[in-house]
Amino acid sequence: MTEPLIREICVKSILSKSNLPVGEYSVNPYVGCTHACQYCYASFMKRFTGHPEPWGTFIDVKYWKEIKNPEKYAGKELFIGSVTDPYNPQEEQYRRTRALLEQLKGSGAKITIATKSDLVLRDLDLIRAFPDALVSWSVNTLDEAFCRDMDRAASISRRLAAMKAFYHAGVRTTCFISPIFPGITEVKAIIQQVKQQCHFIWLENLNLRGGYKTVIMDYIQEKYPRLLPLYHEIYHQKNRSYWNALDADLKAFAAETGLDYAVNDDLSSLRDFNAPPLIVNYFYHEQIRKSAKIQK
Ligand code: SF4
Ligand 1 centre and the CA of 157: distance in Å? Predict the structure, then answer.
């Protein structure tokens, strides 16, 4: 792989008001993401970046004026990493996510960090000083070969080891099983693997939109041709029966395993730290949110 293009840029503000279900503010210390996931849901951002290069091959490192009065974010939910990975490999050198955490330290802000990296271990002490901090790792397979086909982030074993270290250090952790690839993602096996080291298990279906629909369909055709009829049914015929059946199956599995199962649960309700993980189904959550808005 060729080296990514790295640019340093100045921005007015690092916090943006957000309508994400998981935070009132979204915070992205970088533009672009060199983890280059094949299915990147954030690749739509490319058109706002001025970069002609393909998504995944560039990254802009953001510099901002030090956050004034960080106390005004006390009790607010900040989601770090909505359209980038705040612990991409460049963070090791540029430390902009670390700078952000240092500026917010002691503010009382409630942070959620989403990553596919174990570089976050470097900042464990800083992160655990935040009230109710939550760190989420995306893990959508236990098969390292499939993982390598899909992204350039840390291996699954490194992500799971980082999750375990945070869990045992007293930080709330999430295993984000996303995106679930029909017929490939071993959801139950992942739940079994992580249920002793996380507080939440979030489930999200694979959506195929834009340019990466062709990329993923071509990949399935090449590597998993037996699944092509299923993918055709889901992504061309828009048939949701696979997801409905998976939802019912996982609900029954959760009951057998002694885990709670919720659909689009309100994440702000805090669970007992020592409780078994809560499984939250976010299938088609964007559309559910949109239709809920329309009904208002
Ligand atoms: S880690 Fe997230 S933002 Fe980065 S390429 Fe993957 S999906 Fe996109």
Answer: 18
Please write the tens of the pLDDT for every residue from 53-107.
989 999 999 999 999 999 999 999 999 999 999 999 999 999 999 999 999 999 9
Which protein residue has the closest C-alpha to ligand 1 atom 3?
84
Q: Which residues of 147-177 are buried (b: 16+ CB within 10 A; e: fewer)?
A: beebbbbbebebbbebbebbbeeebbbbbbb
CA geometry: angle at 125 spanning 190 and 193, to 5°?
10
Displacement of CA 5 from its chain's centroid (Å): 23
Please state, in angstroms and rounded to a whole number, the distance separating the CA atoms of residues 156 and 138: 9
**Which fold, 5-295?**
TIM Barrel (3.20.20)
Q: CA angle 61-65-69, nearest 5°?
A: 130
CA of 84 to the centre of ligand 1 (A): 6
Question: Quick check: pTM over 0.90?
Answer: yes
Which residue's CA lies nearest to atom 8 of ligand 1?
A: 40
Q: What is the pLDDT of residues 198-223, one digit of tens each?
A: 999 999 999 998 788 999 999 999 99
Protein residues whose CB sits closer than 6 Å to any atom of ligand 1:
33, 35-37, 40-42, 56, 83-85, 116, 151, 153
CB 12 within 8 A of CB 63: no
